[in-house]
Amino acid sequence: LVAKGYTQRPGVDFAETFSPVAMAKSIRILLARAAWYDYEIWQMDVKTAFLNGFIEDEIYMDQLEGFTIVGEEQKVCHLQRSIYGLKQASRSWNIRFDEVTQGYDFVKNDFDPCVYKVSGSSVLFLMLYVDDILLIGNDIKMLGDTKLWLSTQFSMKDLGEASYVLGIKIFRDRSKRILGMTQNLYVEKILKRFKMEHSK
Asked: Chain centroid to CA 86: how far?
């Protein structure tokens, strides 16, 4: 079920649509910090993230074809929550995630609204890029507790130790505190698209 967002009218069906994501430089800085201090880097994915957002606008949809009740074909659906296809779906998801995360004692970064931190005797960073979450920290129990807590708030997929971040492969030599990043799969895909995969 997807909304026909292209029929929405600005100022009537939605106001703002902007939704931030973690900045590339924030991701690189925190990965560098993780390498330097030998922090854990764990990854999670929020399943159907946009369905978690609440909407403030009053939005109605036609009934889904094939699911109408005989004699009630003229009725419409009044949306209570966000749904894929809405112009404001990403924004409403981000607002919901922000409220939930800050309610768990995470502090939002002043320069990047999708980077959060909990500090004390342990350090934990949380980064959000649409529906992808990176957890970086030095306390395995705290990381595990955070993953468990996130799973009580949203339907999550635990991806374990991060190996790919936004299509970038991560490789580490923790004994030497080295972290490398490569986009070789992306390069191979581009070469294949232009029929240059055998070029040297």
From this structure: 17
